[in-house]
């Protein structure tokens, strides 16, 4: 079932949580709402569920206006960040709750409920904990039970509010793969709220980036990663190096240094305009000759050398005094160029993405 | 970096750090015992002694006198009235307290702060003043006095007045207990239940109530103890009619004023027993419900 949010606005006092957002979530897709805390993603999700009433705007579920439909009748499944399991009930009773709440004439028999709960517990691979209480389960298990409980009533859409936010890193990774697989099997329209860009990019069919109550960009993970529409998106997705400069004849001028670069990205970054220039850690080359042409000098602070690549943390000197950079290079480069902490090197961006730098909205 | 190792100290003298630690330990021991001794003394003198005295005085002239004092018709009537008053006031305040706590913790509305403040009012107003308020409203010279007189309805110096005063004084117990508890529990479980299709009543009965039941019981026990033991407000509205409008605490006062000390202490010991039962029940509930244990 598709979900449409049409011109949704929601304020809490003076704070605008959701600012005139219109979005469509297509049937059967897993869409991630991604953004920093306070960007309105959770509020939007709660409005879709009917847990919050928008100040204005409409929610349309499968071509039917659901704005005036109570949360209990919207047939949505909701998974909370802190599980919200009924802690005085066993796992079995938790999962059965939604079925037992159905109106008498359509309520399944206890035997049917038992079948359904058992198969759901099998689905989340936790058949053996049916008689336990939530407090006896680990965080990851609780969230799987919460998911089983949400699926029990056969919701038309599944809404997940930072479902893995309270779990440790290893369990998060396992669970998001598992969730993706589950979604591939069930194909239920899902909206997944997270502030973790890696999680969003890995799990979702589509990513919607939100900032300050507005949608910054939507697209597939690949599109969003490769072609960030705004400086906010670029900065939020993945780690970046940032330069404030001016567009010149041969590239971008940062202080007195000219960074030779193809000018791409924002078309508004015309010659002479102030721009923010971004480069990913792997888009910067480290050259040992301080005095060479192009690029700018920086001093190595620390080299983090494990895994396939090495990360170098540097601090700017002269033109970029006070700035910090991080660069990702192949492990061999460290030895080849005899890089070590304290050494002064030259950084040459191989790729720069420019965004117009004029208003506070662009401030990152 | 090399580790700094303390050189061996010749002649058995103690390393300065060691000495400082010992000194701190002695200081800690002294202050700990001083505090414990002070609390124990205070407890014995102000709490334990009076409790023992009550029972000693009650049985001073023998068990027969004790039993006679309790089986006397006026005493029985006082017991009956006290139980009846508590039996009406406690459920009323239970309902009110749960409703108020629910409204305050689950909804945002105008005047919420005012309501929270009002709930505390009975704690800050002297019980005597509370009693006087009812005299001013319902008394013969009060606002509604003439109308009530004309319709032959008695409120002050009768059971309704006593119940009203008791309800007023024990007003805050349940709400005050439940508001912080329900705030700490949050709304997540209720919201989850609503999304799963539960109606308002089901949410309360199946989710909220099981989560707060120990808090409710705890509050009811404290509320009941206060309802049965209330003196000031009830004293003002009761009129002290023996065998009719005397509650247990009032009956104790009457006996004492008539120099019937053994009888006064005998009836008083019933209230002391109530207090002890309340304490045991309260501790049992705290033991059963970990969330209430640390306050």
Going by helix content, strand content and strand pairing, the class of chain B is mainly alpha
Largest sheet geometry of chain A = 6 strands, mixed
Order of helices and strands of chain B, N to C? HHHHHHHHHHHHHH
Form type of chain A: elongated
Give me the count of strands of chain B: 0
Euclidean distance between termini CA atoms of chain B: 48 Å
Q: Strands of the biggest beta sheet of chain A: in what spatial order?
A: 6-7-8-3-9-10
Annotation, overall tally of beta strands of chain A? 21
Radius of gyration of chain B: 27 Å
As a percent range, the share of helical residues of chain A equals 10-25%
Shape of chain B: flat
Give the ordered list of helices and strands of chain A.
EEEHEEEHHHEHEHEEHHEEEEEEEEEHEE
Helix run count of chain A: 9
Compute the gyration radius of chain A: what is it? 25 Å
In DSSP terms, counting alpha (H) and pi (I) runs of 4 or more, how many helices of chain B?
Answer: 14
**Residue share in β-strands of chain B:** under 5%
Report what the structure shows.
The complex is a heterodimer of chains A (364) and B (295). Chain A is an alpha+beta fold. Chain A has helices spanning 41-49, 91-100, 110-123, 139-152, 169-186, 197-203, 221-226, 231-236, 331-336; strands at residues 3-12, 15-25, 30-34, 56-61, 64-65, 76-79, 157-161, 189-194, 206-211, 214-219, 241-247, 251-254, 257-260, 264-265, 274-279, 284-287, 296-305, 309-316, 324-330, 344-349, 353-356. In chain A, the strands form four sheets. A six-stranded mixed sheet of chain A has the order 6-7-8-3-9-10, sandwiched between helices. A six-stranded mixed sheet of chain A has the order 13-12-11-15-21-14. The radius of gyration of chain A is 25 Å and the shape is elongated. Chain B has 295 residues and is mostly helical. In chain B, 78% of the residues lie in helices and 0% in strands. Chain B has helices at residues 16-58, 63-71, 73-106, 112-124, 127-138, 145-150, 159-170, 172-185, 188-195, 200-229, 232-238, 248-257, 261-288, 290-293. The longest helix of chain B has 43 residues, at 16-58. Chain B is flat. The model of chain B has no long low-confidence stretch (mean pLDDT 85). Classes of the chains: A alpha+beta (364), B mainly alpha (295).
């Amino acid at each position: 079932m598709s979900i449409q949010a049409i011109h949704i606005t929601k304020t809490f006092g003076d704070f605008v949580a959701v600012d005139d957002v219109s979005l469509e979530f297509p049937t059967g897709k897993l869409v991630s709402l991604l953004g920093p805390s306070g960007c309105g993603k959770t509020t939007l999700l709660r409005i879709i569920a009917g847990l919050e009433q928008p100040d204005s705007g409409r929610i349309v579920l499968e071509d039917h206006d659901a704005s005036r439909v109570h949360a209990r009748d919207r047939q949505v499944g909701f998974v909370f960040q802190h599980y919200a399991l009924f802690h005085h009930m066993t796992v079995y009773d938790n999962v059965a709750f939604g079925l037992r709440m159905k109106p008498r004439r359509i309520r399944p028999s206890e035997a049917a409920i038992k079948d359904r709960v058992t198969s759901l517990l099998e689905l989340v691979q936790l058949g053996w904990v049916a008689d336990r209480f939530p407090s006896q389960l680990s965080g990851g298990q609780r969230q799987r039970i919460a998911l089983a409980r949400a699926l029990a009533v056969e919701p038309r859409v599944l809404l997940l509010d930072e479902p893995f936010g309270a779990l440790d890193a290893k369990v998060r990774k396992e669970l998001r793969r598992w969730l993706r697989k589950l979604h591939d099997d069930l194909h239920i329209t899902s909206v997944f709220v997270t502030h973790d860009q890696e999680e969003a990019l890995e799990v979702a069919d589509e990513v919607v980036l939100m900032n300050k109550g507005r949608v910054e960009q939507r697209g597939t993970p690949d599109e969003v990663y490769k072609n960030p529409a705004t400086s906010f998106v670029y900065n939020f997705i993945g780690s970046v190096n940032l330069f404030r400069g001016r567009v010149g004849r041969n590239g971008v001028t940062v202080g007195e240094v000219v960074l030779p670069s193809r000018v791409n990205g924002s078309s508004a970054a015309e010659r002479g305009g102030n721009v923010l220039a971004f480069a990913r850690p792997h888009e910067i080359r480290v050259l040992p000759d301080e005095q060479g042409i192009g690029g700018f000098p920086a001093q190595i602070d620390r080299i983090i050398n494990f895994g396939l690549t090495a990360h170098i943390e540097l601090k700017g000197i002269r033109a970029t005094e006070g700035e910090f950079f991080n660069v990702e290079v192949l492990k061999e480069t460290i030895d080849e160029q005899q890089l070590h902490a304290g050494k002064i090197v030259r950084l040459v961006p191989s790729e720069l993405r420019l965004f117009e730098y004029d208003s506070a909205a662009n401030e990152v | 970096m090399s580790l700094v190792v303390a050189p061996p100290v010749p002649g058995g003298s103690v390393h300065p750090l060691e000495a400082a630690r010992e000194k701190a330990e002695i200081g800690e021991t002294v202050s700990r015992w001083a505090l414990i001794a002070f609390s124990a003394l205070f407890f014995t003198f102000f709490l334990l002694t009076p409790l023992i005295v009550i029972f000693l005085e009650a049985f001073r002239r023998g068990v027969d006198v004790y039993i006679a004092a309790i089986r006397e018709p006026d005493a029985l009537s006082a017991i009956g009235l006290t139980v009846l008053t508590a039996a009406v006031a406690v459920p009323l305040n239970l309902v009110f307290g749960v409703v108020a706590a629910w409204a305050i913790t689950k909804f945002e509305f105008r005047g919420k702060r005012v309501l929270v403040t009002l709930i505390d009012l009975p704690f800050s107003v002297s019980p005597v003043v509370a009693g006087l308020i009812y005299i001013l409203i319902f008394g013969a010279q009060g606002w509604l006095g003439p109308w009530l007189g004309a319709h032959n309805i008695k409120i002050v110096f009768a059971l309704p007045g006593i119940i009203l005063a008791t309800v007023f004084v024990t007003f805050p117990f349940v709400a005050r207990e439940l508001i912080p508890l329900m705030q700490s529990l949050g709304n997540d479980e209720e919201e989850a239940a609503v999304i799963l299709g539960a109606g308002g009543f089901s949410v309360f009965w199946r989710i909220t109530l099981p989560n707060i039941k120990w808090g409710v019981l705890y509050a009811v026990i404290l509320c009941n103890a206060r309802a049965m033991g209330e003196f000031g407000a009830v004293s003002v509205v009761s009129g002290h009619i023996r065998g009719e409008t005397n509650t247990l605490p009032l009956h104790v006062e009457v006996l004492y004023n008539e120099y019937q000390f053994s009888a006064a202490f005998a009836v008083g010991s019933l209230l002391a027993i109530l207090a002890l039962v309340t304490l045991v029940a309260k501790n049992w509930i705290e033991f059963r419900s970990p969330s209430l244990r640390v306050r």
